[in-house]
């Protein structure tokens, strides 16, 4: 995907990373922003990646497990996931939308 200064979500790449979990992503040279939509009760299964990840829930609620910590997050709450740390997310009954920033860019999403 060509990197742009201004990006509409319709211009982003789109990936279904787990059943009921869609990611729309755009990237600069060294970081990437993704809009994540998790359907009600859908799960981002336990995984890890070398990328640092920070994010914020913007709608709905989900149970986040990062390493040995677990917390239900809702709109306006943020999270930090260091590279290499296992994590899992399960949307609650209303589903969840979040924004994620990755460094470096996750090329598999583009």
UniProtKB/TrEMBL annotation:
The keyword Hydrolase does not apply. Its EC number is 4.1.1.2. Residues 35-101 form the Cupin type-2 domain. It comes from the Bacteria. Pfam families: Cupin_2. GO terms for molecular function: oxalate decarboxylase activity. InterPro entries: Bacilysin_H2HPP_isomerase, Cupin_2, RmlC-like_jellyroll, RmlC_Cupin_sf. Keywords: Lyase. This is Oxalate decarboxylase OxdC.
